[in-house]
Specification:
Elements (H helix, E strand, L loop, with lengths): L1 E6 L2 H8 L2 H8 L4 E6 L12 E2 L9 E2 L1 H13 L3 E11 L2 H8 L3 E6 L15 E4 L9 H12 L9 H4 L2 H4 L12 E2 L2 E2 L9 H19 L11 H13 L2
Parallel strand pairs: 1-2, 1-6, 5-6, 5-7
Antiparallel strand pairs: 3-4, 8-9
Helix pairs in contact: 1-5, 4-5, 8-9
The structure holds ligand JD8.
Length: 240
């Protein structure tokens, strides 16, 4: 897979893409990154990329010419072009999976008060990472890349995303590692029992418990079996 990023702040993008699992995926050739500095497409001696809003108002708006100059060649080369924008479709597990199935993504990051509206005609879709205000599209692009790259075959063991909480629709079960006793906090004995069937049942019950307590909205769409329904009725009745 190839992912290009168009930004006024290439230095904000480069570090995270070279680090940890994403950096390893790039080293292994599973994903290829290219970062394009929008300033290179700026207009005039000052390489200007923004201007005052027509109609007045606070702040600056990104001019269309540098964005078109940067993005048109990527689109011509086959990129699926995504604008990071607070008005976009919310990033979700299904959307990350859809984007991970594409061979070539180009992510466009705005700054300032936003972009000239005509830039939207240049993109295939608009994506937001959530309902809070950020200062630009770079951190959203990194979040999207992180969510997508880990789904590219070979980047992490497949087993680690079959269990993804948002794939099954439930939150994750509690995890423990050594030591068996930390301060006065013990590891649940069932996890030390070696009974794989009991461990699986305990984990399912705890995933259901946590989802019921913290994200009951997820239970509307989660894949739950008849056994899960019995466990949920149980959890609701003991309120524990
Ligand atoms: C792109 C400029 C800042 C946005 C005025 C100052 C995504 N979930 C998200 N929150 N925020 C963004 C985002 C914010 C951006 C830009 C993405 C470009 N800004 C502007 C409009 C209101 N501020 C985002 N994805």
């Amino acid at each position: 897979m190839r992912i290009d990023v168009v930004t006024l702040f290439p230095e904000l993008i480069a570090g995270p893409l070279g680090t940890s699992i994403i950096g390893r995926a790039a080293d292994a050739g599973l994903v290829d990154f290219a970062v394009h500095d929008l300033r290179e497409q700026g207009i005039g001696r000052h390489r200007s990329v923004d201007d005052y809003p027509y109609g007045g108002g606070a702040g600056m708006v990104m001019r269309p010419e540098p964005l078109f100059a940067a993005v048109e060649p990527l689109r011509a080369a086959g990129a699926h072009v995504v604008l990071m924008d607070p008005a976009g479709e919310r990033l979700s597990d299904p959307l990350a999976r859809e984007l991970a199935s594409l061979p070539y993504l180009a992510l466009v990051c705005g700054r300032y008060e936003g972009i000239d509206e005509r830039v939207r005609t240049l993109v295939d879709r608009e994506v937001s990472i959530g309902d809070y205000v950020l200062t630009g599209g770079e951190l959203p692009a990194l979040v999207l890349i992180d969510a997508v790259v880990r789904l590219v075959p070979g980047v992490i063991a497949e087993a680690s995303h079959e269990g993804d909480s948002f794939a099954s629709g439930l939150l994750e079960y509690p995890q423990y590692t050594r030591p068996e006793m930390f301060r006065d906090l013990a590891v649940p004995p069932v996890l030390l029992s070696g009974h794989h069937g009991e461990v699986d049942r305990w984990r399912r019950r705890e995933a259901l418990r946590r989802t019921l307590e913290r994200r009951p909205d997820l239970l509307q769409t989660a894949e739950v079996t008849d056994e899960d329904r019995r466990l949920l009725d149980d959890l609701r009745s003991d309120d524990a």
